[in-house]
Write a structure and sequence with these properties.
The protein is an alpha+beta fold and 132 residues long. Helices cover 39% and strands 20% of the residues. α2 crosses α3.
């Protein structure tokens, strides 16, 4: 995984915005926050995000077309990354589960499927919002 000091200026700026965010952000909302730093086009944000995802510092949440900073940068030995996304407050909880990972890996092996990456996104209501 890349160290923050190895990032380009644009990558560091995008990572900084995501790291300070209270929840997931779209590329366009990041662009709005980064205009004062010279960002003018979505492509600048997307290029930085592509590398940050590659480095394992950022995750793309497919179901809501947004990005979050990785909360477990030290734990990418897992082939499975899961997210619980609150539909009320937007909170995202990142985790991995060895049993689910083993089951999916076993299915892949039994079905001769070349598994490259597994990302699970669960959407619902978090404990804070359900108790409110």
């Amino acid at each position: 995984m890349a160290e923050t000091r190895e990032l380009t200026k644009n990558q560091a700026l995008v990572f900084g915005v995501l790291s300070k965010a209270d929840g997931p952000l779209s590329a366009y909302s990041m662009l709005d926050q980064l205009r004062e730093h010279g960002f003018r086009a979505p492509l600048q944000v997307y290029r930085a995000l592509e590398k940050l995802v590659e480095f394992g510092l950022v995750h793309r949440l497919e179901s809501i077309n947004s990005f979050v900073a990785c909360t477990h940068p030290h734990d990418h030995s897992h082939g499975l990354i899961a997210f619980a996304i609150c539909e009320t407050c937007g909170a995202v909880d990142e985790f991995s589960d060895e049993i689910v990972e083993q089951r999916l890996t076993g299915w892949s092996r039994n079905n001769n499927f070349q598994l490259a990456k597994t990302t699970i996104e669960m959407r619902g209501v978090c404990a804070n919002c359900s108790s409110a």
